[in-house]
Amino acid sequence: MRDFKAWRKKLDHPDGGGNTLKMKRQLPFMGAACVVMLFIVYRTTNYQYQQTEMEEKRDPFDTGEGAERDYRKLNDLPRGIIEARSDLERKPLWTSGSNSKSYATHSNLLAIAAGIKQKNNVNTMVQKFLPENFTVVLFHYDGNVDGWFSFGWAHDAIHIVAQNQTKWWFAKRFLHPNIVSIYDYIFLWDEDLGVEHFDPQRYLDIVRSEGLEISQPALDPKSQDIHHRITVRRRTNIFHRRVYENRGSTNCSNESTGPPCTGFIEGMAPVFSRAAWYCAWHLIQNDLVHGWGMDMKLGYCAQGDRREKVGVVDREYIFHKGIQTLGETPSRKVSPDRRQQRHPSLDTRTEIRRQSTHELQIFEERWAKAVREDEDWVDPTVTFRKN
Question: 107-320: CATH homologous superfamily?
Fold first, then answer.
């Protein structure tokens, strides 16, 4: 009881409440200090945000911890001198005189893996794209470049040569997102497509108006090698996003949420927006060159719900000729005796199919492993399905 009274007396005594008074006097100072600190934090955060925005505008693909590590390797250079991106536009060696030429900047890219045997068909394809402001890149898998220069446009195209390599091998090495970031759309096409009923500009008008990030022209029903019914042209449609089918193990209905019923295009004539290609390029495996199975996963690169962002354009369609040329040995005269002596194991088409099947299995195993090990990854298709 004495202790309690002593405590009350100390609290009521002017000297006993000194600490409280002192704290009251310090409150305005502490408040001002907090305001100053908040202002400093705000200015610092705002400055960092503005710097980040400026860097993303300049280098939109250089983000994340990996990019920061790469930038540290450039510490010996002044930051302002760094050009993180390039393009596939040719530059003049001189800009004055009678031999000077104006080099235009193109807004879209057409890349074709091409062999000399399909020279005339590729010429027909390119002629469709040239008037529509396209940069043309030819991936020469047969090593023959000189044979193309009978076409005037070939002198302005970009030629990349590597013997017996696939379209995906070339794309992974020469169409890095930082290189092709100036192009709105990337057409990564095979060489055996008939384009009699295809107009690139009308096609892109449809793609833009419908918000398709990944697309392909529909296939003429008379085409060779039609593997999935969703790619077949519908005469009365402008475009379509899904197919209805109930055959064998395939059951496609309104309830279907993924390939090959919806959110799917095949690999012979894909068209990617800039953002979709950034994702697709990272999906391409460095060592799995045939790309089998990748078309089933491209919907993850659709920048949204693949049921809405992936589609097949019916109004502008193509004819797939299904010509198999990759893996052929260079043409040369072989005696009949030598032909009879060839061992069946040297059938390159059979070997290619076997390798493709093997790569498909590896890709599926890698996907399953990556999903299993990435604890932070959430399948976006499940979220879209719930919505």
Answer: Spore Coat Polysaccharide Biosynthesis Protein SpsA; Chain A (3.90.550.10)
DSSP state letters, 24-55: HHHHHHHHHHHHHHHHHHHHHHHHHHHHHHHH
Report domain extents, the chain: 107-320
Average pLDDT of every residue of the chain: 83
The arithmetic mean of pLDDT across residues 225-239, rounded, is 92
Q: Residue 292 corresponds to which amino acid?
A: W
Model pTM score? 0.76
- For 88, the token pair is 């596939």
Q: Where are the alpha helices (DSSP H) in 59-115?
A: 65-72
**How far is it, in rounded angstroms, from Cα 387 to Cα 372?**
24
Residue 87 · residue 115 · CB < 8 Å: no
Q: For 358-383, how does the pLDDT look when each residue is reduced to its tens digit (9 = 90+)?
A: 999 999 999 999 999 999 998 888 76
**Residues, the chain, total?**
387
Angular region, 291: left φ>0, alpha ψ -120 to 50, beta rest:
left
Alpha helices (H) along the chain: 2-12, 18-58, 65-72, 119-129, 167-174, 200-210, 274-283, 306-309, 336-341, 348-373, 380-386
Which of 82-86, 129-133, 266-270, 369-373 has the weakest average pLDDT? 82-86
Report the distance separating Cα 62 and Cα 54, nearest Å. Answer: 12
Query: 298 and 270 in contact (C-beta within 8 Å)?
Result: yes
